[in-house]
Write a structure and sequence with these properties.
single chain, mainly alpha, 3-stranded antiparallel β-sheet, 3 strands, about 60% helix, globular
Length: about 180
């Protein structure tokens, strides 16, 4: 396994996730809350569905995380005047300050763990960016889609072929009769 790149990347990812989790635990922040921070910092004020798409968290976990952050004064929810069911979530000034503190702490932990000098780090980050771009291109995704919150990748499923005129769809009577 020493030369098997997917294995090495998997190990690096797992160890980096553990490093991130250790910093967040010390700061009393959950991974889900960190993903919310990342979403709002990158996308700005967002509706719950936009945050869910970015974080790839289940709606229940996401709602709970946002409620906990709101209770601590880190995010605010503003209801849409035209449709009270919709709310836009945003970081408060306290939430932005907390996000900056977390980012500094995470960066410091990574710098200490990776211990690279500046040219080495620049080269490494350029290589990582290039790999992300290549894989994104190969998978037909824009590179920024792959830059979602840390730890949010989901396995890809093969695309279903579109039904043809000879293939009944689930909504046709023929498909219903075949299941009876």
């Amino acid at each position: 396994m020493a030369g098997f790149l997917p294995y090495k990347l998997s190990v690096l990812s797992r160890l980096t996730q553990e490093l991130l989790a250790s910093v967040l635990v010390e700061a009393d922040v959950t991974i889900a809350q960190w993903r919310v921070y990342l979403s709002l910092a990158k996308q700005g004020p967002s509706h719950l569905n936009g945050i869910a798409d970015f974080t790839m968290l289940p709606q229940s976990s996401l709602s709970r995380s946002i409620a906990q952050m709101a209770d601590r004064g880190l995010v605010r929810s503003v209801r849409n005047e035209n449709d009270r069911r919709l709310a836009q979530i945003d970081l408060t000034s306290q939430g932005r300050k907390r996000f900056e503190q977390l980012t500094v702490a995470i960066q410091a932990a990574c710098e200490a763990a990776f211990a690279m000098d500046e040219p080495e780090e620049v080269n490494f980050l350029e290589t990582v960016d290039e790999l992300i771009a290549r894989l994104s291109n190969r998978l037909g995704e824009p590179a920024d889609v792959t830059m979602r919150a840390v730890g949010t990748a989901k396995p890809r499923r093969a695309a279903r072929p579109a039904p043809t005129k000879t293939q009944p769809t689930r909504s046709t009577g023929a498909a219903k009769k075949g299941r009876q």
